[in-house]
Amino acid sequence: MAEEKKEKAAKPLKLADPVAASMDVATQEMIVRSHDLGIETVFDRAQTMKPCNIGIQGTCCKNCSMGPCRLPLPKSGIEGEDTRKGLCGATANTIAARNFIRMIAGGAAAHSDHGRCVAEVFMSAARKETEAYKIKDTVKLLAIAPHLGVETTVEVDGETKDRDIDEIALEVAEKALNEWGKAEGELLYPKRAPEALYEKWKKNGVLPRNIDREIVEIMHRTHMGVDQDYRNLIKQGTRAAIADGWGGSMLATDLQDVLFGTPSPILSEANLGVMKEDHVNIIVHGHEPVLSEMIVAVSQKPEIIEYAKSKGAKGIQLGGICCTANEILQRHGIPTAATFLQQELAIITGACDAMVVDIQCIFQNLANVAKCFHTKLITTHPIAKMEQDNVIHIEFDEHHALEDAERIIRMAIDNFENRGTEVMIPKHKATQVAGFGVESIEYHLGGTFRGSYYTLNDNIINGRIRGIAGVVGCNNARTRHNEGHITVVKELIKNDVIVLTTGCNGIACAMEGLLTPESAAVHCGPGLAEVCETVGIPPVLHLGSCVDNSRILLAATEVVKAGGLGNDICDLPVAGSAPEWMSEKAISIGHYFVVSGVYTVFGVTLPTSGAPVFHNYISKDLEKIYGGMWDIEPDPIKHARLMIAHIDKKRKELGIDKARERVLMDMADRQALDA
Ligand code: SF4
Ligand code: MSK
């Protein structure tokens, strides 16, 4: 028996098949290298560790120590009354709803706590307590001030004068920070939604009171023995999700834009091939731009570049992973090194001199991989440390931000000479144009005379653009890396649906070359290709990081405002998707899309399958209340077609389905003429 046990423990990890694990060639090459070097990655662990069959259905409750109570759906399904219950009597619906809204709480907390951190730095900048951060984009400051109830003008002796910008910044900082914990009233930003949507939220009693309260209330309601009605539970999930999308995330995006600049289209590159063998490679990874902005600034200082050269490097190459990548990409064109699932591979190149991590989506296994190389792994945030002893913690503080950034960069430079001989950087990288946002879409697709989103709406109405899709979210090691993302997006643009992307979907699309205007001629249907060619935009517009999904909400609001496509987001020919989601943040994002009126399809799986009544409620019934609904479809082609079918349904309801038929006929006629 002891022998048998020993043999079991010594059993080698099952290795991933590189081609089955990822569609990306650089990733495949690096998985092979990891196997050659005997270093385990997430792709291998996904072979060995299989998900829990009950957890995946959403019906395992461990909210008290009488459990865990596990209520899987019987293989034969449920016939008649569903008698499954936990020790306390909790039904499968209650358990799945509790788990689901706890995921919303986790996601909303992550986005919103990130936002709070930015708001605190913003306050320091407004008070001029720090040299490192300044109010950079005063136009954006003036644009957001009224939404926070801050006046931008003042009456002096009967005359209207512009208010002092420092005064406005300070009041914006105070009002913004107040949104997390104010004692009375309701959150201010949801009023930015179309009026019909705001009224719907009001009528249904889901307007958030403040950001923190809605998250705390989820933890209370889901405690053992509190809320036991899946409809009431998801109602609170709705309140917290709105507090995320139209609160914490939107504030994070806005305040980051004011501090660091509102993005505008910018040229860059993506994939592991952006790392350079003869440069000091510093990879920043996580979500918050407050430190990475400083790293960008310091890395460009002539004396720092000279220091790198004095150590034998030709310069400093910054690269990003996950949404820290998206933040510095959209404002500075810093290339994107990797998606979420490639993070270990960036170190396995042997050329990563320092990996600087902040918060969210960081694998603890990075520390184990870093041990095999010279890479300095540096944690920087007080709430995100690692237990392994090779990890260096340099706590970042906005009051000495530039000094912290310089210390980190010098550490990376000093580490350059410690590289082993075994460096292998895959050659693969692709060009991308990123940095789109509500403002730049207006610039590219707005009307000359009427401003706003007139041209975009016009092209939707005349059918050249069939509809708009927001395709976002993570990678998931339970499915082939990037395949869901790329297949869904290609199917959409082939059918003239313009795609707005964020997060790791944006990175995946960049790696596939879909973020260039030239890709329109290759991959798009004739209508969308014509629009992209005319205005010079890619068919997939990268709007930034996870918190920047708020840009998609505001872009949809602008489409409503521009007119001709109904009065509410749920009237628009739009759909949402997260083909390879994995994080709690994705569930919060998905839910605020749904309750903002967007039909939203998730890939992989949804933790509701063990509770069909609850699942039915968040799909069919929520549509009757908010106009949006959840759906699940793991097959990426079917997934995209569900979205297109929804877009067509909305076109029909708007009475613009005929216009599209006519345009397609025109194209066919034109093609016939060309032949
Ligand atoms: Fe089981 Fe109820 Fe406790 Fe959950 S709360 S673990 S269902 S007894
Ligand atoms: S980083 S949350 S894996 S998108 Fe925002 Fe990517 Fe998902 Fe993290």
Shape: globular
The proportion of strand residues reads: 5-15%
Estimate the mean pLDDT confidence: 94
CA-based gyration radius: 25 Å
Which structural class do you get from the secondary structure elements?
A: alpha/beta
**Strand ordering within the main sheet:** 8-7-6-9-10-11
Q: Can you tell me the CATH class of the largest domain?
A: Alpha Beta
User: Could you estimate the helical fraction of the residues in percent?
Assistant: 40-55%
Number of strands: 18
**Bound small molecules, which ones?**
iron/sulfur cluster, Broken Fe4S4 cluster
Q: What gap, in angstroms, lies between the N and C termini?
A: 77 Å
Largest sheet: 6 strands, parallel
Q: Please give the CATH architecture of the largest domain.
A: 3-Layer(aba) Sandwich
Residue runs with pLDDT of under 50 for 5 or more positions: 1-7, 669-675
What is the helix tally? 27
Number of domains: 3
Might you state the CATH topology name of the largest domain?
Rossmann fold
